[in-house]
Task: structure prediction
Amino acid sequence: MRAVQRGDQAAFGLLVERYMDSAYAVALSILRHEEDAEDGVQASFIRALERIGHLRAGSPFGPWFYRVLRSTCLNLRRRETLRSHGPIPPTVGGGVDPAREMERRGARDRVLGALEKLPEMQRLAVLLFDLEGYDHSEIAEILEIAPGTSRANLHHGRNKLRRHLESED
Amino acid sequence: MTETPNRHEGRGWPAWLEPLRPDPLARLRMRREIGRRAASLLAAARPSWTDVASDWARPLVPLAATLMMVFGALAWAAATDAPTDPGGIAGAEAPGMPWEPVAAEVTDAPPVLLIGSYEPSADGVLSAALQHPRPGSPGAGEGR
Result:
């Protein structure tokens, strides 16, 4: 972290690689649109880099970064510049099998649909627990709630998610 | 600051969340855009040679402060030990006889000891009489 504060590009690149996928999943669950999620992740990393000097010595980067990510995505969602939530455009890229891509998108829509039915705190508690393995004190710190509330959110969120996913099967 | 390890890294990404992973193209776009926007911030955060020098000098500050305190204390101790009253030496009693009565004798009284002990020789008296004869004595006119 000290290397990043001193402008070490390689160290910052390692942080980006470490957190990019999970950050994208969390951003997608908040913004519900792939390109908005990409914007949210990019803006969050830049915002974190701008403010990394505020991170206390010895404090873990992860929970702090997810707090930055969450507030950045919520700000993005409040703005009117978000893209319209039309059908997700197919990814144009070489070597992507259209059938597999359709299948992947179907699975993504199904998971996102189930997550959308959860209240935001429950959704984020489930994601942070399953993606990062954070304990309730860390989740509580990220979401700025009490650890007991985090425990309840995770419990209810998991139950609801299971019901929604099973009902779609 | 520490980086929190992903506690699921050992068993990988949870299967039910696999569809939420970014595809390779999205990952590439994000990586490129973050790198582009972060470059100027990281360049600005890189320390200049003055920052490096001050980083090196910072651990020496307590040592310099300690040395200054030590030398300051030594200087103060030396200043308080040195005589500050100019009459200190003059006023100090000399061993042996006091000098003030002697000084009084020298200024007020004639040098008794020297006068009393002087006895002119006969040759000296004679030569003085020849050089400065008294008026009216024989040979006084010859001397002039």
